[in-house]
Design goal:
alpha/beta; 10 helices; binds adenosine-5'-triphosphate; binds magnesium ion
Amino acid sequence: MKDVIIMNKKGTSLCFFSAKGGTGKTTNLLNLAGIISQLEKRVLVIDFDLYTGSVAKYLNKTFDRSIIDLNDDLENNRYNKITDYVTKYNENIDILCAPIDPRQANRFNVRYVKDVINMSCLEYDVVLIDTNNSLDAINLSILENVEKILFITTNDIIDLSNIKSLITIFNKIGLVNYKVLLNNSRDPFKSLLDIFEIKKILGCNVDYELSSEMFLKNVDKYVMEGKIISLDKSFSSVMAKDYLTFVSLATDILEEGKDE
Ligand SMILES: Nc1ncnc2c1ncn2[C@@H]1O[C@H](COP(=O)(O)OP(=O)(O)OP(=O)(O)O)[C@@H](O)[C@H]1O
Ligand SMILES: [Mg+2]
């Protein structure tokens, strides 16, 4: 009889990171989750922005269990499976929420970061991790243990120079599994710098770019309705360029995940 090798399904992980707050991490991480879900892949969004987590708020979801419950069960040997702690958004998107009460955030033990990422990758095709912009122990552990990092920067000159400092540090310590997304949709009226000047400031390539056309005056309407912008029926036609950017980001992640 032939040997049967049972392989565990192994998904891939990507974290969004920026040098400053408000660059569009959460909004566009959710847009990416939307596109991946349309490709019929299962996505887990982990809200590791533990003190000011906003994924559940953006999606207008209430929830019973958070990442802190997961931490506590790991600590007390009560953990069974990752899906016991997630909240369903739609057929393909689940979320692992940050605690409602920010005072609980510092209970999360940094030694579980790696386990949470690995356990999630066993269950989902893609694990997307939202962060805040500090270089604290939790974020450093995420950055070390995640398969890919996406630096997200606006076209703001200070933001660009701060992200350049981060990239320089990452290159020095050999953490080169990152790509850069330039988000022009946060400050659509800034047009002093063109893409060549931006690349010069960054000292590296810009892998993905969201256009100023993706600036939405009514962005809060989506939040109030708990809707993901990329899942809007008109997104692929009205914002065709940005839709294609998300599709190429999604396919790159899925392809690169296969190579690991
Ligand atoms: N395309 C857009 N058009 C208009 N407003 C946007 C767009 N994308 C994001 N915003 C707004 O910019 C603000 C910051 O966005 P978001 O919360 O996604 O950034 P963030 O990097 O996750 O912030 P933080 O670092 O605080 O977690 C929010 O008020 C959001 O609604
Ligand atoms: Mg955020």
